[in-house]
Amino acid sequence: MKTNFAKVNQNIPGSKAASLFERRQNIVPRGVSNGIQTFVQSAHGALVTDVDGNQFIDFAGAIGTINVGHCHPTVTEALHKQIDQYIHTGFNVMMYESYIELAEKLAALAPGAFDKQVLFLNSGAEAVENAVKIARKYTKRTGIIAFSKGFHGRTLMTMTMTSKVKPYKDGFGPFAPEVYKAPFPYEYRRPAGLTEEQYEDFIIEEFKNFLITEVAPESIAAVVMEPVQGEGGFIVPGKKFVKEVHRLCAEHGILFVADEIQTGFGRTGKYFAIDHYDVVPDLITVSKSLGAGVPISGVIGRKEVMDAAAPGELGGTYAGSPLGCSAALAVLEVMEKENLNERAMHIGKEVMDRFHQMAEKYECIGDVRGLGAMCAFELVKDKVTKEPDKALASSLTAEANKRGLLLLTAGAYGNVVRVLMPLVITDEQLEEGLNILEESLQACYGKVDKAHV
C-alpha cells in the first residue's frame, strides 16, 4: 500500500500557526522573510511536521543546510554527549580537541597536496568575510573580485560582493570599497548566434579584458567564486571557464577562493563541488550542511596563506563552538558511512530526468540545469524570448506548500525553482515530492503540451 508522506489536513496557516504568526507580526521585523506561514513542531530525515499536525516533504533543506537530514541520530547523539560535557569555553580562552579534530579531517578532505590550516567561525558570511581578510593580509593587496549573479552573504563586505540588489542590497549602502564584479557564464542566456563553446570562450575573453579595463590584476588579493551559483539560480559554469580563471589567478599572484557554502558536503556528489573542475583553490569557505543545522562555518586553505594573520586578528566569541564542531564531526561520519556523495548522484539523476520530462511537456520551463543533487529549472513566459516568469515561480512554490512540499525559488529574476532535499530522503519520498512539484506546476500553469502527455 502506498504511503502518503505529505499530509496537509487544513489550510495553512492552521489555528495554532495563525496564532503564532500574529505574534510574529507584532514582534519580528518584516525584513525577516518567511517562505511558508506555519511553524515547525518536529522534523526527522526529509519530513517536517508543523504545530497543526501537517506533514511536509522537505525539498528546501533549510536552504541547503540539512544534507544529512533533520535530527540524524548520529548528530543528535553527538550533541547530547557534548552538552553533558560542556557547552562553551571560547576557543580563544580554553581550547578543545573537537576543533582540532574537525580541522584535521577537513584539511585531509579538501583538494590540494599541500599543508593546510583551518579556521572556524559561525556563518557562511563570516567565512567569506574572513577569507577576504586572510587574502588581503597574505597578498598585501586590497582588491576583491566576485561575479555577477553571485551571493556571498549579508554583512557589509559580503553584501557588497553579492549581486542581487533586491532584497539583499537595496537601501543598505554605501558599500565596501575595492570590490569588483566580473561577468559569470549564464549559458541559457548566452547571446544569440553563439554556440556553447563559443560563448564560454567569449566569457573567458571578457574576464581577461576585465583585468585590463576594470581593475589591474596586481591590485587584486582574491577572486571569490561559487563552483555552482546558489542564490544566483543554480548556474553551473563550464569547466574550461573555471580552469582559466584559476590559471589567470596563479599567473597574477591572485588567490582563488571557492565559496562552497551551499555546494559543499555532498550536495553535488562530492565533498567539495570544485573537485568537479580539477581545480585546487587557495582557500575554501564552508558552512551550511557542515553543521546539520548547528551554526558553524570555516575557511580551509594553504598553510602559508592562513598563517599570515597575527594572533587575535581572526576568530570570534562563538567561532567554532563545541556544539558546532561536534555536529560537524558527526556529519562527516554520516557522509562516509551512508555514502551520501554517491546518494547525491542518484538523487540528481532522478530529479534531472524528471525535470527534463517536465520541460518537454510544459512550455513554461525554459531551462533545466544542475550538478549532482543541486538541480533547478527556470520558468519563462516564452521559450523564444526567455522572458522570466517570477510570478509563476512564486505561485508554484505557494501551491506546493499547500500540497505538503517545502520548495524554494532562486535566480537574479526570481524565476528559478531549485531543490535542496536532504540526501537521506527515501526513493519513495523523492518520487512523491517530484509528483507534488509537477502537479503544482500543472495547477498553476494549466497549459500542457498534449502531444507529450
From TrEMBL:
In which family does this protein belong, per the annotation? Belongs to the class-III pyridoxal-phosphate-dependent aminotransferase family.
Molecular function via GO: 4-aminobutyrate:2-oxoglutarate transaminase activity
Q: In which pathway does it act?
A: Amino-acid degradation; 4-aminobutanoate degradation
The UniProt record lists the keyword rRNA-binding: no
Protein keywords:
Aminotransferase, Pyridoxal phosphate, Transferase
The record ties this protein, via Gene3D superfamilies, to: Aspartate Aminotransferase, domain 1, Type I PLP-dependent aspartate aminotransferase-like (Major domain)
What cofactor is this protein dependent on?
Answer: pyridoxal 5'-phosphate
Q: What is this protein called?
A: (S)-3-amino-2-methylpropionate transaminase
SUPFAM superfamilies xrefs: PLP-dependent transferases
